[in-house]
Amino acid sequence: MINPKNADNAKAFETLVFYSEKSAIKPVIAFAKTLEKYAYGIINHRRFPIHTSRMEGINNKIKVIKHKAYGFHDIEYFYLIIKNAFAYTN
Fold first, then answer.
1. Is residue 36 part of a domain?
2. What is the pLDDT of residues 16-41, one digit of tens each?
3. What is the pTM of this model?
């Protein structure tokens, strides 16, 4: 279930789940089971904090440019507009 490369994160995670399950509080136990269910994704996100928000923003910006450029017949000009829109971003 848990990748051995993430040993430190996995150990801390397993400890949290262990003590949560030992408690007699039902919502805490339910939460621990949910954490255990999604452990792989949570630990990997901790190791590699990658998300898609930047790509979503780029796609949205291209859609806006495409909408503004409706009617242009020159695809090269469209590509230049897109390149210019991202020329000053990181």
1. yes
2. 888 988 998 999 999 889 988 998 88
3. 0.48
